[in-house]
Amino acid sequence: MMKQDKDTFYINKTDKKTLPHINIEELINDDTWDLFFKLISKYYKLLDNQIEEHDLTDAQRTLMAFNILYGEITTGGFLELIKNSHCNYIFEFKFSETLKKWGAIELAAIIDQARKIYFLKKIEIETAITTHEIFEIYNHYPEFNILDNGFFKIMNVEADKIKRYIQLHIDEFVIVV
Questions:
Q1: Contact, 99 vs 108, CB < 8 A?
Q2: Most-buried pick from 16, 96, 117, 120 (CB within 10 A)?
Q3: Model confidence over 41-58: pLDDT tens digits?
Q4: Annotated domain spans of the chain
Q5: Structural domain 57-176, CATH architecture
Q6: What pTM was computed for the model?
Q7: What are phi and psi of 158, to 5 degrees?
């Protein structure tokens, strides 16, 4: 088999999913977020150059969704996620089901709770977000504040569970060369 360099990509003929190559040396690291960013940056490179998002595997999309969730929650909470229009991606995508499969059960439970609140109050929340500054509406939805705080309590442990799943199922995320 001809060895390809680390910036080439492989289309798996069996399931038609596109996976980037990564050198094994790049995977040798104890830091959870370093691993996530190495993988996610490869996915964005794929999206910039060769494929559409729907061509990514469920595992790849879930890791990218986790990155979005983390960024939104740590900068402004679930209301920020909704304001920035990521709620459909997080709440309607089979995101929490995949997280459960990966062992991040507490994180999936928080997402499921946020999904319920969002869909119960969707029109009200979206109207409030578009007509008021985001900081003005936090007091109107304390249930999101509780979930935001819950996220901060579990995020590192749940991220480590996701990392462990990736390590055990690396072939769902990349092709190691």
A1: yes
A2: 96
A3: 988 888 887 777 777 888
A4: 57-176
A5: Up-down Bundle (1.20)
A6: 0.84
A7: -70, -35
